[in-house]
Amino acid sequence: MILLSVVSCNDQDNIILTPVNKTTPYVIDIPFGFPTKLNIPSDNPMTVEGIKLGRYLFYDGRISGHSEPEKQMSCSTCHLQENAFECGIDNPQFAGGKTHGVTGIPTPHYMIPLFNQVWNYSGYLWNGSVSADNPDPMRRNIESMTYLAIIAPHEMNSDTLSTVNTIRNIEGYPELFKKAFGTSEVTIDRMGKAIAQFVRTFISANSRFDQYLRGETQLTPSELNGYVLFVTEEGADCFHCHGGGGNPLFTTNLFYNNAKDSVFDDPRDRFSVTGDPMNKGAYKAPSLRNIELTAPYMHDGRFKTLDEVIDFYSGGLVYSPYVDPLMHYIISGGTRLTPSEKADLKAFLLSLTDHEFVTNPALSGPEVMPQ
Amino acid sequence: MKNLVPIIIIAIFFTMLNSCKEKDNDPGNIRLTFEEKVDGELLQTDTLKYVNEAGNPYMINEVQYFISKFTLYFNDGEFYTVKDNMGMHYIDSDIPGTKSWDIPEDIPSGRVDSIVFVFGLDEADNQSNIFPNPPESNMFWPEELGGGYHYMKLNGKYQDTTGLLAPFNFHLGIGQTYDTTGQVTGFVQNYFKVSFPLIMMSSLLVDVKPGQTTELILTMNIDSWFATPHTWDFNYWGGMMMQNQAALQAACENGRDAFSIGAMYEL
User: Fold this and answer.
1) Which of A36, A232, A329 sits opposite B144 (nearest CB)?
2) Residue-wise DSSP of A230-291
C-alpha cells in the first residue's frame, strides 16, 4: 500500500507525489461459508506491518505502562491462545476463570470470545457497549479496546501517558511504528490500531465441523445427531441465536435474555446500553466455536462445564417477562432433552473446537520482544 | 399553400405522436416502503395490547421476512420484475434501513394493472448459503428441515390460559413430511404469491412516471396472520411451528390476505 502526499499543487504540471509510507496489504481469505463483509475501519486497513506491531504489543506487558514487573499486564495476560483467547477456567492466575486487574479489582464480567471479531458488527463486550454508534469516539470498535484496557481500574489501571512513554523508550518499537504507520511516533491511537489489526487475524474456521461442511471429514453418528438437535426447533433449538451451517460464526452477535434469572440488577446488561426494558438481563450470544476451551460459561461464569449449560437449557430456565421470545421453551422450563440427546449435543459442541486456531504460530507470542 | 396544410397537420401529428412515444419510454423509479400494522394501526412492539380473533392477548416483539420476485404488470401487456439483490429483499422491524427499498433500476413507465410478489422465497430462489452476511444469514433455515431461509420470523408472546406470557415463534419456511418413525420423507414449499389486481381496485391507480419515483407502500397487517381462513389459537398451536407442516400450511393460508398496498408520487 503506498500512501502519497501532495507536496505541491500550485502548478498542475508540477504536482510532486512523495511516497511517505509503504506497507503490505494483508488480505483475509474468507473461509468457506463465512460472511464476505468484513468490519475493518476505513482508517485502519490491515497491513502485514501493522499486524506485526500489533502482535508484539498484544503480548507485551510493558503496554500497561507499569515499571514493576509484577504490575505489568498485557492483552495476553488474560487472552490466552490455548483457551481460544479466553483465560481458561484452570488458569492459575485467575481462579475459576475470573479475571481481575493489576490491583486485584475483578472485571465486571467473565470473558467473552475474542475471535472472528472481523465479522462482528454488533458491538463488543457482553452488552455491546463498545459499538459504532457510541457517542464517545473512544468506545466504538476494537481499536478502542487498548485505550479502555489501559485506563480501566479492573484491568491495567494505568494512564496513556505512562504507556506511550514506556513503549516509546523501548528502542525496537519506534521503527516498528514507522514501518506500520509511516513515522516512528508512538501514540495510543496507533497502538490501538495495530492491536486491532492483529486481533482481526484471530480467525477460527477449521474445526472438525468446518471440515465436515467442506466435505473433508465425517462426523460421528452422535455428533451428527447432536447437530440435528442443535438446528431443530423441536430439538435443542440453539441455532436461532447461535447459528449453524447457514451462519458458521455460531453466533448472531445479537443480545438475548436467555432465561437465567428473574431479577435483573447487573448495571452492565444490554438494558444499560439501550434503555429498552425488553433488554433487561440480555447479553450477547457468544460464539460456540471452541466452547470446549472457554469455560466458565455465561457473562457471570455461573456454569463451570458444558454439561451444566446443557442441563440449564434442558430444564433450568427461569421465567420472567423479559425472556427473549426465541426462548419458547420457557413455558416447559427447557428443551427436556433425554440423557442420550444431551450426550449427542455435547459431542457436536466438542466438534467445534479448532485445534489449528489455538496452536497457530502466527497468533502466538513472539519469541523475542522489542528491546 | 392550401395543399400543404394537410401535410403540415399530418407532420405535426406524427411529430407529437413520436414525442409522446419517446416520453412514454422514459423510465421511472420505484421505492418500496414497508410497514407493519395491527388492527389498522402501526405496529407497537413489546406491548401486550393486541387480541387476536381467537381471543388470545398477544404482543409482537419483532418481525423479519423476505419478499421476492416483485413484479409490475403494465396495461400494455408488458411486465417488469425487479432484479436488484437477486430480486430478494429482507425486511426487519429492528433495522430501519431494511424498511425502504430504493430499487436502483430503470423501471418502464406506464400504468400498472397489477402487482405481484412472492412472500418468502420460491423454490428456485431459496437456496442455502446465498446470503453469507447478516442480517439475512441469521434467517437460515436448517438443511435438515429443507434448507434455504426462513420466509418470516414473527416473534412475540401471548398470554396463555394460566396468565403467563408464553413466547411464540411464528416462523415460516419449507415444511417437512415425516414417516411414522419421525424421519423426514420430503419437503413442502410453503411460499405463496401475493397479488394486487389494481385494475379491479378503483381506489388505487399506480403509474410509473417518467423521471419520477413512485413510492409503493407495502403494509403487512399482522393481525391477518391470525385470522381468515383459520382462527389462530396460540393455546392450540403453541410457540413453535418449523416442524409442523399443518401449522405452516394454515399460517401461510392466513397470510395470503395479510398484505395491502398504497402509492405515493414524487412532488
Assistant:
1) A232
2) HT-TTTT--HHHH-BTTBTTS----EE--S--S----TTSTHHHH--GGGTT-EE----TTG
Partner residue opposite A233 with nearest CB, options B132, B133, B240: B240
Mark whether A68 and A174 lie in a shared domain: yes
Cell reading at B196 = 394486487
Q: Say yes or no: A74 and A189 in one domain.
A: yes
Task: For residue range A288-300, list pLDDT tens digits in order.
Answer: 999 999 999 999 9
Instruction: Say yes or no: A238 and A195 in one domain.
Output: no
Give residue A217's domain range.
Answer: 208-353
Q: Are residues A174 and A49 in the same domain?
A: yes
Domain ends where: A147, A168, A203? Answer: A203
Shared domain for A23 and A116, answered yes or no, is yes
Beta carbon pairs, A and B, within 8 Å: 93
pLDDT band for position B25 (50/70/90)?
Answer: low
Phi, psi of A6 (to 5 degrees): -90, 110
Beta strands in B15-164 (DSSP E): 29-38, 41-42, 50-51, 57-74, 79-81, 88-92, 100-102, 110-119, 152-159
Q: Flag whether A371 is in a domain.
A: no
Say whether residue B57 is in contact with chain A using an 8 A CB cutoff. Answer: no
Give the DSSP letter of residue A62: G
Residues A253 and A313 in one domain: yes
Interface test with B, best of A274, A278, A327, A338 (most B CBs within 10 A): A278
Q: Are residues A229 and A348 in the same domain?
A: yes
Each residue's pLDDT tens digit, B115-140: 999 999 999 999 999 999 999 999 99
d(CA A263, CA A257) in angstroms, rounded, equals: 12
**Residue A142 forms part of a structural domain:** yes
Instruction: Report yes or no: B60 at the A interface, CB cutoff 8 Å.
Output: no
Q: What is the pLDDT of residue A37?
A: 98
Looking at the DSSP bridge assignments, the partners of residue A369 are none
User: What SS3 state is found at A315?
Assistant: helix
The model's pTM is: 0.91
B242 to A324: CB separation less than 8 angstroms, yes or no: no
User: ipTM of the predicted structure?
Assistant: 0.91
CA B226/CA B219 separation, integer angstroms: 16
